[in-house]
Write a structure and sequence with these properties.
single chain, 76 residues, alpha+beta, three-stranded antiparallel β-sheet, 1 helix, 24% strand, binds zinc ion
Length: 76
């Protein structure tokens, strides 16, 4: 089991400052964080088991929180 206390909370989007970032999964093999407001996203992390998925989510959360975010200039 993975202890929840190691799970960081997602911070606000560093690009648009909105607090609407969430973890998205893609094709059941990778996860990333995406901003629901501006569409900026973190890098993706791959996983191949439920435990790896938890680790992957922690990883993308951490990367998001330290500002490793790819800006998406959607609709501009
Ligand atoms: Zn944003």
């Amino acid at each position: 089991m993975i202890n929840n206390e190691f799970m960081e909370e997602l911070l606000s989007c560093p690009i648009c400052q909105e607090d609407c970032a969430y973890i998205e999964s893609e094709g059941d093999w990778c996860v990333y964080v995406i901003c629901g407001h501006c569409g900026s996203r973190s890098v993706t992390a791959n996983y191949s088991s439920p435990e790896e998925r938890v680790r992957a989510e922690m990883q993308v959360t951490h990367l998001w929180n330290i500002g490793k975010v790819i800006a998406e200039r959607r609709g501009e």
